[in-house]
Amino acid sequence: MTSRPRCLAPLVALVLAGCAGAQGGSGEGDATAATSPALAALLGSADRAMAQGELAEAGRLLDEARAIGPEDPGLWVAIARLRFRGGEHLTALEAADRALALGPDHAPALLMRALMVRDAHGFVDALPWFEAALAADRTNADAWAEFAATLGDGGRYREMLEAVHELAKVAPDDPRLFYLQAVLAQRGGKPVLARSLLQRSGMTAGGVPAAQLLDALINLDQGNFDSAAAQLEALAARQPANARVRTLLARALFLGGREAELVDQFASDAERPAASPYLVMLVARAYERLGDRGAAAPLLERAFAEASRVPSALARRSSLPQPTAELRTLATAGNWNGARSAARDYRSRFPASADLAQLEGDAALGAGDGQAALAAYAAAARLRRPWPLTRKVLFASRRIGEGLAADTLLARHVAGEPDNIAALVDLARLMGTGADWQRSAMLLDHAIALGGGHDPALLALRAKAAEGLGNDAEAKRFAGLAGELRPPALAAR
Known about the structure:
Blueprint: H1 37-51, H2 55-68, H3 73-85, H4 89-102, H5 107-121, H6 123-136, H7 141-153, H8 157-170, H9 176-187, H10 191-201, H11 209-221, H12 225-238, H13 243-255, H14 259-271, H15 277-289, H16 293-304, H17 322-332, H18 336-349, H19 354-366, H20 370-381, H21 387-399, H22 403-416, H23 421-433, H24 437-449, H25 456-468, H26 472-485
Signal peptide: 1-22
Keywords: Repeat, Signal, TPR repeat
InterPro entries: CellSynth/LPSAsmb/PSIAsmb, TPR-like_helical_dom_sf, TPR_rpt
């Protein structure tokens, strides 16, 4: 069997949070025997109840199952899923670890760990876990589908296609076959083929968010901006904290000539210190088209300048869960002590929630307590560490003097999420501060290839990298591209 990944000695807890307890055993005491028919029936019923959102009923069924087979790894995988669905994220990790301890070669338990590692650390660290799951069961369709998607997230498209072919062998009727091929076609610049494959999957009509997002991206590529905007608005309503969806929505509105709607929905977002230069520029250009140069000029200046390094904590936005909305209201009013008190209260009531752990960290960070923020973020990062969380961890780490740990974490995040333009630019900027212009240029070129060439701060940094490498012609070219985005000076009247 493929050897298990081993935990490394972490520089800080956040760098490898969640690695502890991940090792599998050698097989002694391995509880992988066939599940009894009664237990299997209960687990199947619990899965169906969870799929229908009937979490209390699923919990009752799993309690019955636990009485029959308390040492069954499949039971603990199901318990982990239920706890996760119920917001008990950290105890879900404990259940997943229990499943692995009981069944080191239990494919569903290995797959669950792979997914958790992917969410917390990125695709590179997760790959050995996917390989272990597939070594345990080569017929596991879920493992092949998630393995293929993970390879795609890492830009390893040839290997992704090979994994899709393996999925076709074990599950020729699986709708994810067409979805994954649609992803490959879209990334290969073939939107017409991508649309055909996506329709064959049926996943868009089924309301799968990832499929709906892909459909919106295809519409953007094909110039169907109003259709893309409608899809992205629906997704943003379901996922109000998803920054990528909101940025794509802003782009769709801009390309569709709906400047007034763009300003109405995103002007407040663009005013936030942590707004991306791209979003700021979209809002500024919308103001320009509407004839409001006074509102456009300062935003264009901000877009051209380097983005603020200070992350936005608890910025207010509509349609968020009640605890998040309450804390953001307090933060917007500058009442950080009140926000911290409310966060502690929620955390004491729901100690297993990674979301509330992150909110507690945000409140501490806003109050200037970097050490407390890192402690709370460490708990949240055991489950997942998306870029917004990593960015706040980086800021808090540097605030308390842990610059080396922050630099290490940034490099690891880019390795795990190599298509994240914002992370690439931050790492490129870090490389530039050490005069490592060769690596800085490589990172920025990759970001440009991913579509980041509209970011004026990125282009200006790329010009600096070219200058540092002694390539005057390239420096002039990138400086010229950045200059095209610089706002013209306002004429005196």
